[in-house]
Each structure stands twice: as C-alpha cells, then as structure tokens.
Amino acid sequence: MRFLMDKDKIISLLDGTADDWLFGEALRLRNQTIGDKVYLRGLIELSNRCRKNCFYCGIRCDNHNVERYELTKEQVVTAAKYALEHGYGSVVLQAGEQQSNRFTDFVTDLLSEIKELSQGKLGITLSLGEQSEATYEKWFAAGAHRYLLRIESSSEDVYKRIHPEDHSFATRLGCLSSLKEIGYQVGTGVMIGLPEQTTESLADDLLFLKNFDVDMCGMGPYIEHPDAPLGKSQTPLEERFRLALRMISLLRLLMPTINIASTTALQAINPLGREMGIAAGANIIMPNITPSFLRANYKLYNNKPLSDIDLSGFDVAYNEWGDSRHYALRSN
Ligand code: SAM
Ligand code: SF4
C-alpha cells in the first residue's frame, strides 16, 4: 500500500495532530513490507580528525578542546571481529572528513582486511564525508557497498545558516549523485529541530528524500554542543524528540521499503529513544563498537551515550546484512 500525502498533510502530521495513528500505521506498513526485524550496524568511529567546520558539530576542526585520534588498523580489525563474533550483519566506518591520499589508502586497506577476515559475511557502510568520485569508486571496488552522507537540511538557506561559507550545498548534492551513479546504496538524512527550522522545511526534507529516491536514511534531533557555535534551538528537546519520531513514521509511509536508522541522538534525549524509533517504523540500529576508551573523544553533541546498547529489547536479525529492499527494487 502506498500513502499519497501532500505537503499540507505532512505538515499537519508533523505538528502532532494524529501521533497514535501515524506511529501505528508506520509500524504496520514496515512489518507488512520489509518485516519486523531489526538489523545491526556496528559503528566504528575511525577518527575524529576533520577538515570541516560545521557550526553544529563538536568535532569541527576549530574546536581545540578535543583530543584528536585515529584508530590503528589493529583496533579497527578488533572491532570488526567483535561485530562478526556477535552476529552483527554489518559495520559502519565513520569519521570526520579527511581527503588525503594517506587516509584514502588507509580506508581501502581496511575494507580489504574486513572483507577477508569476515569472508564477506560483514556488510560495510562508509560515512566519511565528501570525497572525490575517484575515491568513492576506489572504496566501492574495495568492498564498500553503502554510503551515508546527510544533506543535513534540504533547504539551501538552512544549509547555509548552519555551515561556513566555504561549505557547498551543491557539492554535497553532487556527492550524493556520484555515490548513486557508482552503485552504492545511498543514505542521507537531516537534523531535526535546528534553530529557526520550521515544520514546513521538515516537510520539504521528507519530499526531498522521496524525490532523490534514497535507499537508506539516518536522521535525528539536533542537540547543542557547548563548543559549537550554532547554539540553542528554540524547539524544546522533548519536542525535537517527538518531531524526530514523526519524521521516521512519515518517511516510512512515503518510502515503505527503505532502511531507516533509529539514531543515537534519539537515545541521547530519552534512554528508550532507539526503541521508540524502531516502534515508529525504523528498522536499523547502530551500536557503537569503537574501543570504549576513545568514545569520549567523538562527542558530536551533549549527552552522547558512551556505553554499549542493550539489545534485549529488539527483535534482531543476527548474521544478516539487511540490505535496503528499496535498492534491490530500483536496481532491477
Ligand atoms: N563527517 C562525516 C559527515 O559529516 O558526513 C560523518 C561524520 S558526522 C559526525 C555524522 C553526522 O553527525 C552528521 O551528518 C550530522 O548530521 C551529525 N551531527 C553532528 N553534530 C550534531 C549535533 N550537534 N546534533 C545532532 N547531530 C549531529
Ligand atoms: Fe566534520 Fe562531519 Fe562534524 Fe561536519 S559533521 S564537522 S564534516 S565530522
């Protein structure tokens, strides 16, 4: 079943006019189309070094209150083995944006290593920011098959307000198109409850995701970081949380077969946030498997959870990649 919703209807649902109906329908539709299982992505935060200066982010390069690190190959391999041994179907390699040849080669090497050690049993997603097409191609050839790059906001005006002048909306869009062209399963997403963001702008974000025909989405509430200049949102945290759940449900209704993550930022606001994201129609969780002594250095926002997630509340599909059904359908 397809839900046809115009922008006014989306705005009214974002305003919370029918939460019980919305959450229930999204869950029912997810279970009917892609099933009720939750898929795991073990998140490995490779490095907090970043060349960018996004106004909202705690690891932006101008924040000198952060101790910078880069995992060694051995540490990444240990984390990947942990994922494999615990039945995680996939890992995500995430980092601040780095564009050196050294970094490109490091990641290429890690991809081959993870492919070999897992004998192809671990799916691999990358979330390493904007790169040249040649780099994306190199990583795809080395075994990465999914890429997450959030557009952050589909409104160019909002994008400009939350980034310095030398960060380009057009480049970000270009990267997303290149990733699709190369053959990746492409994931993008937005932050919810940014300063001066309206529900109309969020409705446009949902329509952007639909029109771009994304395979995966990771979106979550914006959470202030004391060393990041973007500052305070007028939307109370609890309302940002509800808005994020509504965004998940609405996206599920608009795109029934994509993968949608229940993100860590939800858990930062409510201890049961990730469970509630799954109940609102998401189907992916990304437990952090970065070596625990380094997690405090990858602090994107206030109150980011540092401990391991308890998986007992989820109906997990262990040992499965859990690829986006939408991708399979659009590639056939
Ligand atoms: N550097 C890569 C990039 O920007 O695509 C990947 C890592 S970056 C830390 C991952 C995501 O963290 C960003 O896309 C952004 O949406 C999110 N993020 C950063 N600061 C945040 C904040 N203060 N609140 C919520 N999410 C935040
Ligand atoms: Fe760097 Fe990504 Fe943070 Fe922007 S959001 S400062 S690119 S890590």
Automatic annotation (TrEMBL):
InterPro entries: Aldolase_TIM, Elp3/MiaA/NifB-like_rSAM, FeFe-hyd_HydE_rSAM, HydE/PylB-like, rSAM, rSAM_sf. The keyword Metal-binding applies. The lineage of its organism: Bacteria, Pseudomonadati, Bacteroidota, Bacteroidia, Bacteroidales. S-adenosyl-L-methionine binds at residues 152, 172. The keyword Iron-sulfur applies. Transmembrane segments: none annotated. It holds the Pfam family Radical_SAM. This is [FeFe]-hydrogenase maturation protein HydE.
